[in-house]
Amino acid sequence: MGGTARRRVAATIVLVLALVAFTTSGVRAQDPVTVQVNHGRLLRVDGIERVVVAAPEIADVNLINRNELMVIAKRVGETTISVWHARGMTTYRVVVEGAPAADPAVSLRELLREPNVQVKIIGEAVILEGSVKTAADRARAEGIASAYGKRIINLLTVEQPTPSAPAATQVLEAQLRDALKELPVAIRLIRDDTVLIEGSVATQSDLARVQTIARAYVRNVVTLVRIREPLQFSLNTWVAEINRTALKQLGVEWGGGAIIDQEIVMNPFIFHYGTQNQVFPGTPLQLLIARLRFLEQQGIARTLANPRLVVQEGKQAKLLVGGEIPIPIVGSDRTVTILFKEFGVRLEFKAMAEAGEPINLEMKTEVSALDFANAIIISGFTIPALKTRKAETILNIRPNDFLVIGGLIQRDESKTVQKVPILGDLPIIGALFRSERFQRGETELVIFVSPTLVSPTREKPKEPGENGTSQP
Q1: What's the pLDDT tens digit per position in 276-328?
Q2: What is the three-state SS of the chain?
Q3: Which structural domains are found in the chain, ordered by start?
């Protein structure tokens, strides 16, 4: 071999050694290092001396030892890592990829935990196929699948149909029958949370008892129970203007008296008028009527109204003694509609009772009057405001006892009479405003309420010729 050939061979060997010196043992510099987000990859480089990362926010390194380093991927992107080692320097191109998306069908199957259910997801539709043990499992699978698509195609079959009357339902029905055994009603459990009750009871209180007991066992109660002979109540009411001193003669002491289960709203006062300090024989109703008549004869009391109502037990009785004021309402097409607003004395009652027990009376009282001092003008119409006083109470009261309600009219309302004479023409309240004693604060508007139990007539009319009489 000539000298020229030897020189060429030597140059080739030097070039190969140079290439080897700048090449790592594990990864070639021209091949990218691919890593998924939140994962790492180990690189082997002999004699590592120094490492520089171009974008540490995308990927970083952790030096394990002189011959190994860990590339840690942080977020999707690309960067370069330069490594100085014993044979020189190598630059790596690092590509960080996102984690592969999980298969929604696989995750849905994992949530269902039903080995016999197959799941297919096509666009926004979820198809469920296979079988489940109960109807509840079928409904559960459809509910979970609704989170994975807008349209659910449920082709699941039920292996074991749910029994229509499981043992737990039978036990609940037996417990409910035992709780209501003293009442003549029939019970049928429609669903686990719904019961149907049929039959008849004697009073409204018995019906309320049936409903209360049933709701303690189930949530929904369908009641087809009728009352055989519903009680009836007569509500005697007096609206009177009485001298404040004379009220004490009637036994009314503001701030005292026997008050039972009362609830007072706003300014009114509610008092019980019973048989305390009774001297003359008779019921409280008879005594009060006699005393009111006596005070009227003395000129220190006036009966403004004496309405009477008869209502069945548990039903609501309403009474309005007053009038209606027209209020114009202008529509969007400039047409005027007249709406009538009631005012005056409004009474609402609801009563319940059991044999030998006090009457449970729920009562709402409202006294309203026109207030022209605060009137407004709409489209040329003067619309007065309404000044209202309300009282609400629920209490127990014995038949023929009285409830006295006062404080429903404020004294300063009398000042308005001088400005607006029309107030004197209002029903009931107008008569009160025309009283000079009321304007001076000497009298009080009071409402007396007395519930009485009315016994329905049970005897048949006698036929002609009965009781020893002969037909004509």
Answers
A1: 444 444 456 667 777 778 878 878 888 877 888 888 887 888 888 778 888 88
A2: CCHHHHHHHHHHHHHHHHHHHCCCCCCCCCCCEEEECCCEEEEECCCCCEEEECCCCCEEEEEEECCEEEEEECCCEEEEEEEEECCEEEEEEEEEECCCCCCHHHHHHHHHCCCCEEEEEECCEEEEEEEECCHHHHHHHHHHHCCCCCEEEEEEEECCCCCCCCHHHHHHHHHHHHHCCCCCEEEEEEECCEEEEEEEECCHHHHHHHHHHHHCCCCEEEEEEEECCCCEEEEEEEEEEEEHHHHHHCCCCCCCCCCCCCCCCCCCEEEEECCCCCCCCCCHHHHHHHHHHHHHHCCCEEEEECCEEEEECCCEEEEEEEEEEEEEEECCCCCEEEEEEEEEEEEEEEEECCCCCCEEEEEEEEEEEEEEEEEEEECCEEEEEEEEEEEEEEEEECCCCEEEEECCCCHHHHHHHHHCHHHHHCCCHHHHHCCHHHHCCCEEEEEEEEEEEECCCCCCCCCCCCCCCCCC
A3: 17-97 (2.60.40.1080), 104-158 (3.30.1340), 167-227 (3.30.1340), 232-454 (no CATH)
